[in-house]
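A.,

Following up on our hallway conversation. C-alpha cells first:
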C-alpha cells in the first residue's frame, strides 16, 4: 500500500528561507545601508513591527488580521521610515505558495507605507488562539496603463493582473470602459458588444490583457477597467476589481496621467459584500487540497469531488468512488477502489495526483476548478445535457436529433424556453465566441448524436442571417460539449418559426475519380478536375461542381497500397457553382493512385411552430422529411 506524503519540494523548510530573504533584500530599498539579521533581532537599532504568517491565518503585533485589515493597522504605525517590518512563520515547514504570497504582499506594503526595510525573523508562534482563513481567490488589477504609439497616432490600454493568492484564478471576463462604465462604452467610445478573457492565472503569475489600438484626440479622458465584471468568480473581496486611469492628451502626446489601482470610482456601486469564511483551526487537510476538483480524459471518464477542511471528500459525480476518507501524513486516502487503496497528493504544479498503485503513472491528475468545496463546475467543457425533451427524432445510422430549446436577448437580461414556449428545467443559452448576441436575435439549441464524421446543415424560416456552430452554456458559464446552436436575426413581429436540420451520416458514395495527371471535364457526376500539384505542404487538387443542397461531398485520395486518405481544405461558391480545394498534407504526388469525389445525402427533420417567446401556446411538431 502506497504511503507517500506530499512531495518535499511543495514545502520549504526554515533553512530554505535564507535564499528568499536575500532576494527580499535585493528587491527592497535599504535605508542607510543597514540590514537586519535574524539572529540579532534584539540588537536592532530601530523599532519594529511583526507579522506572523501561518498556513491558514496570521497575526500582526498579536492581533489576528487579514490582508484587507492590515493596511488600516499599518497606518497607525508612527515613523514607519524608522521602523523595520518583520515577517515570521508559525511553523518549521510552510507551503511554498503561501510563503511566496506573503512575502510579495508584505514587500508591497513596506514600499507603500515607507517602512525602513523588510526583515525575515525566523519562526514564531501565532499569538492568536482562534484561527480563521480568508478562503477563495481575489482578482484585482495590479497596474493599469495607457501606451501611445506617437508615429502611428494610436494608443491602447493595458491592465496587469497579479495572482498573489495561493490558489489559481480560473478564467474570467473583463472589460475596458471610456468614462462611466454605466454608459457601456468601450475604450474607443463605441457601444460594447463583447468582452475580454483572462486566465487561468497560477499562483505568483501575472497576466497582461490589452485592448486593440484606437485614436485618442487631444483632451482629458477617464478609463476604467472592470475585472470579473459579470461576477462569475467567487472572491473573498468583491470590491477591488476596478481601476481608474485619468489621462490628458496634448499635441498628440500624453501630457499627464494618474491611476488609482484598485479603485471603486465615484458613482459606481456594488451590492456584493466582502465575505470571509471561517475554516476550523484543526483542519485535517492542507489548504492546497481544499476545494472542488475535476478529472476528465479522452476516454470519457468524468469525475468531480469536493474536499472539505475536516477531511470529508464528497463525490459530486463519479465512476464509482466512495466518499469515505482517512488522512495519512497529509495525504488524502480514499476508500478502497477495485480492491486497492486510492491516495491523493497535491503536486507542485497545483494538480491533484491520484494513485491506484505504487506510482503516479498508475493514477490520474485532477485539476482544481474552484477554491471552495462543493462549488459546481466553472468553465469545464465536459457537462452533458441529460434532460430528455419531447422534440426529438431517431434517424438511420444511429443518428438522433433533438431541438432542446430557444433563447433570446431582450434589452434587459436574457430568456430561454422549450420549443413549445414552456419552461426549461434549467437555464441554457447559445453564445458566440467572445461576443454577446444582441436584441432581436434568437438562439436555437439542439443536440445531435451519431458518427464522429457527421455533418449538419440548418435553415431557419424568417431569418435574415444565421450563424451556426455556436456553443451552449448554462447560467454559471459551463459549456455543454454535446449541444450546439444557431443564432439568427429574425424578422420583427414573428411569433414562431420552422427549423429544418439536415444530418449527413450515411455511407459515402464515389461518383467520380481522377488520376490527377491533367485537367479534365470529368464525364462522371459533372465534376471539373484540375491537375494535381505538389508543394512543400503536400499534394493539392481543385474540383468544381454544381452545388446541391440535399447532399454533402468530399474529395479523398487512394494511395498505391489501396489506403483511403481524407483531407482538409476549403471551398468558395458563386451562383450555383461550388469550388473545393483538397489538400493532402502527408502525401506526395507519387504516392497517390487516384482521387475520388464522394457524396452522401442529408436526412432532414423539420420542427414546425417553434415558439419565439416563453409562452406555452403553440403546438410544436416534429417531422421527418424524405431525402
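Then the amino acids I'd put at each of the 627 positions:
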Amino acid at each position: 500500500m502506497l504511503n507517500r506524503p506530499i512531495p518535499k519540494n511543495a514545502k520549504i523548510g526554515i533553512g530554505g528561507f535564507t535564499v528568499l530573504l536575500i532576494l527580499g533584500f535585493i528587491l527592497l530599498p535599504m535605508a542607510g545601508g543597514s540590514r537586519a539579521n535574524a539572529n540579532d533581532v534584539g540588537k536592532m537599532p530601530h523599532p519594529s513591527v511583526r507579522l506572523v504568517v501561518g498556513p491558514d491565518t496570521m497575526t500582526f503585533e498579536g492581533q489576528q488580521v487579514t490582508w484587507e485589515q492590515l493596511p488600516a493597522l499599518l497606518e497607525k504605525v508612527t515613523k514607519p521610515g524608522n521602523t523595520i517590518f518583520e515577517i515570521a512563520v508559525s511553523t518549521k515547514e510552510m507551503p511554498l505558495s503561501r510563503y511566496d504570497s506573503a512575502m510579495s504582499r508584505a514587500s508591497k506594503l513596506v514600499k507603500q507605507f515607507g517602512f525602513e526595510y523588510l526583515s525575515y525573523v525566523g519562526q514564531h508562534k501565532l499569538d492568536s488562539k482562534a484561527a480563521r482563513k480568508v478562503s477563495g481567490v481575489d482578482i484585482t488589477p495590479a497596474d493599469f496603463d495607457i501606451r501611445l504609439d506617437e508615429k502611428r497616432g494610436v494608443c491602447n490600454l493595458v491592465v496587469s493582473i497579479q495572482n498573489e493568492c495561493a490558489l489559481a484564478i480560473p478564467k474570467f471576463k473583463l472589460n475596458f470602459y471610456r468614462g462611466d462604465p454605466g454608459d457601456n462604452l468601450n475604450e474607443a467610445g463605441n457601444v460594447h458588444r463583447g468582452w475580454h478573457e483572462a486566465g487561468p492565472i497560477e499562483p505568483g503569475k501575472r497576466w497582461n490583457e490589452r485592448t486593440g489600438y484606437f485614436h485618442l484626440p487631444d483632451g482629458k479622458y477617464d478609463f476604467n477597467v472592470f475585472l470579473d465584471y459579470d461576477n462569475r468568480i467567487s472572491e473573498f473581496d468583491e470590491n477591488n476589481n476596478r481601476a481608474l486611469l485619468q489621462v490628458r492628451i496634448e499635441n498628440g502626446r500624453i501630457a499627464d496621467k494618474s491611476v488609482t489601482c484598485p479603485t471603486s470610482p465615484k458613482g459606481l456601486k456594488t451590492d456584493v459584500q466582502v465575505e470571509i469564511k471561517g475554516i476550523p483551526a484543526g483542519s485535517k487537510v492542507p489548504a492546497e487540497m481544499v476545494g472542488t476538483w475535476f478529472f476528465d480524459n479522452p476516454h470519457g471518464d468524468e469525475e468531480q469531488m469536493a474536499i472539505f477542511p475536516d477531511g470529508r471528500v464528497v463525490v459530486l459525480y463519479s465512476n464509482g468512488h466512495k466518499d469515505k476518507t482517512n488522512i495519512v501524513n497529509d495525504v488524502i486516502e480514499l476508500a478502497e477502489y477495485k480492491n486497492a487503496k486510492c491516495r491523493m497528493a497535491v503536486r507542485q504544479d497545483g494538480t491533484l495526483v491520484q494513485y491506484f498503485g505504487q506510482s503516479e503513472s498508475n493514477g490520474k491528475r485532477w485539476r482544481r476548478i474552484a477554491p471552495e468545496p462543493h462549488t459546481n463546475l466553472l468553465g469545464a467543457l465536459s457537462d452533458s445535457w441529460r434532460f430528455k425533451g419531447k422534440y426529438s427524432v431517431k434517424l438511420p445510422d444511429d443518428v438522433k436529433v433533438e431541438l432542446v430549446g430557444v433563447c433570446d436577448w431582450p434589452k434587459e437580461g436574457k430568456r430561454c424556453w422549450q420549443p413549445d414556449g414552456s419552461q426549461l428545467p434549467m437555464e441554457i443559452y447559445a453564445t458566440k465566441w467572445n461576443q454577446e448576441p444582441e436584441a432581436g436575435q434568437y438562439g436555437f439549441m439542439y443536440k445531435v448524436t451519431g458518427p464522429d464524421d457527421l455533418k449538419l446543415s440548418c435553415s431557419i424560416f424568417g431569418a435574415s442571417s444565421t450563424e451556426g456552430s455556436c456553443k451552449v452554456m448554462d447560467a454559471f458559464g459551463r459549456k455543454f460539449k454535446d449541444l450546439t446552436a444557431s443564432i439568427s436575426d429574425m424578422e420583427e413581429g414573428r411569433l414562431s418559426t420552422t427549423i429544418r436540420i439536415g444530418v449527413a451520416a450515411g455511407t459515402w458514395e464515389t461518383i467520380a475519380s481522377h488520376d490527377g495527371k491533367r485537367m479534365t471535364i470529368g464525364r462522371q457526376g459533372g465534376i471539373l478536375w484540375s491537375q494535381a500539384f505538389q508543394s512543400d505542404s503536400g499534394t493539392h487538387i481543385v474540383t468544381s461542381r454544381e452545388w446541391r443542397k440535399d447532399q454533402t461531398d468530399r474529395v479523398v485520395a487512394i494511395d498505391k497500397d489501396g489506403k483511403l486518405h481524407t483531407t482538409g481544405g476549403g471551398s468558395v461558391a458563386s451562383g450555383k457553382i461550388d469550388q473545393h480545394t483538397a489538400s493532402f498534407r502527408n502525401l506526395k504526388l507519387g504516392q497517390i493512385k487516384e482521387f475520388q469525389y464522394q457524396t452522401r445525402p442529408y436526412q432532414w427533420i423539420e420542427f414546425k411552430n417553434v415558439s419565439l417567446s416563453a409562452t406555452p401556446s403553440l403546438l410544436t411538431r416534429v417531422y421527418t422529411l424524405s431525402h
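The helical segments are 17-27, 70-74, 96-113. Curious whether your intuition agrees with the design.

B.
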